[in-house]
C-alpha cells in the first residue's frame, strides 16, 4: 500500500489480527523471560549439562517411589508346563488317562480330545517352606526358596503360537514392532552406569528364540533403548574390542572426528532416531571397552559363590554363569537384564515332558535358586524384581502320549523380591489347569504390575507415535496390588 492510499477495512482487520498476535506472543515471551530468571536464581542454569546428563540413558525418576530399581527376567523359552511345575491339580491325577470332559468347552475337537486324554503331572508336588507353597519335584533347589516366591497361577495371553506369544510377553502385543518391556524401562529409568547399557539380553547359546531379536527391540521408541546382547567369555559384545595395533589415543581421536561429522549430519535431519542411536552407541561402546570385560571376569568371585550357581558342573555351568553375570550387571547399574533358557525348541515339550523338562530343570533349577540366595545375602533382593516365566504354559491333555501342546489360556509366572509377597499363590486355573479361572492376570495386567513395582503409572508411561500416545499396556491393564506387601 502506498502513502497515498487509505487503509481498507480488510487491511485494518489484518493490522488488528497482527496486534493481537503481537500481544499474545509478547506475553508468552515475558513469561519465558520470567521463568528463565527464576531458574537462574535457583541454580538450574548455573552450569552446563555434562555428557552423562545429555545422554538419553541418563538416570531418571519414575512417577512415584519405586519398590524396585532393577529387574532380572528369567525367560523360559518354549513354554514350561505349569501343571508339572507350579500348579498342582489333584483332578488331573484323578482323571488321568480319560478324555477332557465336555464341560471344559470346545477348545479342541471331540475327536482330538478322545485321542489326547488327560496326562497327570509327571512328578509329585509337595508343600514347601513355612508357607506350604506347593512346588514340583522337578525343582528341588527352587523349592527351598518357596517362601520367597509369589506364583501367579492365573496368567493368560492371546496367541497359541510361539513367536506371537513371545512378542506379547515381551512387548504386550502379538504383533511385531512394539517396544519391549526392557526398552520401556530403559526409556523410563535410564541407567545408573553410563559405561553400560540400561537393557542387556543374554540369549541361550544353543540358538535363537522363536520370533528373534524383535522380542528385545525398541519398536517405535528411539533405537538407543533396544536390548544389547551380551555373551559370557572374553568377548561379551561382538566387535567391541579395538584392533591390537590401535592405541587408545588414536581410537579416541578417530571417535571424536566421527562424532563431529555425525553431529553435523544429525543437525541437518529432523529427529532421526536411528542416527542418534548410532551416535550414542559409538560413545557407549568406547566406554564399555573397559567396563564390559570386567563384568564377565568371574575370577574375583569366591569358590563358594561359584558353587552356589552350579558353575563348574556339567548341567548347570552355562546357565549358572549367565545368572551370576546378571547379578554382577545389576550390581553395576544395569536396569534390566533378561536371560533366555531354551533355544528355538527349548521347553517346548510336545512329545516327552519328562525328558524335556528334566533336562531344562536340571540346567536352571540350581542356578536360579543360587541367584535368589546371592541377591539376598548381598542386600540386592529388596530392590530387585525377579521374574520367571515363558511365553505360555502347556495343556493338561497329552500329546503323542507323553507330551503336552501349547496353552495360552492359563499358565504360571512367578515374581520375587522388591516387596512382592513371598510364599503365596495368586489366582488359579480350572480343575485341570486348562484355563485361568479366578483372579485372572492377563499379560497387560502383569506388565502394569511390573511397571508399578518400578514406580510407574502404566497409563502415564507413554510415547507419542503416529498421532497417539502409545504405552506398554495398550488400552487395558490392572495392577495386581494383592501380591504387594
- Quaternary organisation: single chain
CATH level-3 fold name: Alkaline Phosphatase, subunit A
Strand content: 5-15%
Tell me the name of the CATH class. Answer: Alpha Beta
Task: Supply the helix-strand structural class.
Answer: alpha/beta
Average predicted confidence as pLDDT: 85
Query: What number of domains?
Result: 1
Q: Give the fraction of residues assigned to helices.
A: 25-40%
**C-alpha geometry:** globular
Computed over alpha carbons, the radius of gyration is 27 Å
C-alpha end-to-end distance: 76 Å
Write the layout of secondary structure elements.
Elements: H1 9-42, H2 51-54, E1 70-76, H3 82-85, H4 90-94, H5 110-115, E2 125-128, E3 133-136, H6 140-143, E4 149-156, H7 162-171, H8 181-189, E5 199-202, E6 228-229, H9 248-267, H10 273-296, H11 303-308, H12 317-331, E7 336-341, H13 353-377, E8 384-389, E9 393-394, E10 406-407, E11 411-416, E12 424-426, E13 428-429, E14 436-438, E15 441-442, H14 443-453, E16 462-465, E17 468-471
Parallel strand pairs: 1-7, 1-8, 4-12, 4-15, 5-6, 5-7
Antiparallel strand pairs: 2-3, 4-11, 8-11, 9-10, 13-14, 16-17
Helix pairs in contact: 9-10, 12-13
Description:
The chain has 485 residues and is an alpha/beta fold. The chain has one domain: Alkaline Phosphatase, subunit A (3-Layer(aba) Sandwich), CATH 3.40.720. It is 36% helix and 14% strand. It contains 14 helices and 17 strands. Strands 1, 4, 5, 6, 7, 8, 11, 12 and 15 form a 9-stranded mixed beta sheet that branches. A two-stranded antiparallel ribbon has the order 2-3. A two-stranded antiparallel sheet has the order 9-10. α9 packs antiparallel against α10 and α12 runs parallel beside α13. The longest helix has 34 residues. The protein starts with 8 loop residues before the first helix and ends in a 14-residue tail after the last strand. The relative contact order is 0.19. The N terminus is likely disordered.
